[in-house]
Write a structure and sequence with these properties.
The protein is α+β, with helices and mostly antiparallel strands and 426 residues long. It has five helices and 20 strands. Pfam families: BSH_YknX, YknX_C.
Amino acid sequence: MKKKKKIIITTIIVLALTALWGGKTYLSSKNTFKTVDTAEVVKTTLIQSVSVSGNIKALESEEISLPSGQKITKVLVEEGQEVKKGQLLVKLDTYDLETQLKKGKISLEMSKRNLEKLKAENSAERKSLENAVTQAELALKSAASKYEDAKVKHEQTKKLYEAGFVSKSDYDNSQSSLKDLETNFLTAEIALDNAKNALADFDNRIYEQEKQIEMSSTELASIEKKIAESNIKANINGKIIKLDAKEGQYPAEGSNIIIHDQSKYILELKVSQYDSVSMKLGMKANIKLSGLDKIYEGHVTKIAETAIVETSTNSSSKETKLLVEVTMDNADEQIRAGYEADAEIILVEKENSLAVSFDAVKTDEQGNKYIFVVEDNIAKKRIVETGLQTDLEIEIISGLKEGEKYILNPPAGLMDGETVMTTGGI
């Protein structure tokens, strides 16, 4: 009886050890499985974008400089006030300008009268000067004709003298007569020049008087313009964001009034050459401002024709950038010119696209792109064709179906057909 009991106990111990060893073997085998994270292939909207930071500015603005030499007599608006185009903002003192204008008008009138008097009183003088020019021209013509005839006759006399047909006395008389006529000719030329100069001097007096009247008229127009501009008006609709004007004071140098049209804002961006080549007018943009939860909408409205080269503040490296403007489509009262904003410019947007995580796609030695799918805890290599890539996802054109389970970031050495343990167990 004791022997039988001993055999039973021994058998139980052996079975227990066998079970324990088998369990350890199973656990050991199970622990060799690679643990993987998985996800399902889904349809989604893929967006390829570029993110750039920039500053907001009003699409249209006006800066009015205040003259430091004119006292401000009236300020009709306040900083922050909405104004309309043509609305009177500030009045400047015009007393000195109006005094200058009155004096200038009197001076101009006197100059005009002097001109008329000069023309009337000297008409006879001018006619006399014109006659003098005419007479001098006739005298010169006569002297020139006589001088030319004398030169011809003297040449003939010279030949006859050399041939012995005329006396030396006749030859000397001919030569003396030629010199006298030459002197008369030169004198007539001088007389004509003097007559012309006298006429020109007379005309210059009238010309100078006419120019003086022209200058006076220009000065008066400038004064009238300054008087008109002393009533400073808005040239655009908008809000006054700066007003350097106080009644009874002279504006300091650089004082101005700035108006922003707040119906439209733009975001000025400096985009890298790499990103700018993909941008086109009309592309949508999502705009985010620090401190505001709202996402504003916009679109690209301007792309510069010429790039700029900037030097990094932290190094001597240079970077080529392109200026891009994004117009905000739904700006509200929270927007301020000068605010910094981040813009996500949508380069490509595809709806209902099959997509997987970027890290799930690998490339084999043959250059094929593949993904491991999981079927009954077996990792299976699947060749795929990819499309649009974003920072986080890749479009799958062929090779996968919606709802299939795939491995996220497959572990190194994972083989096709290998048993895997997904997160949470087999």
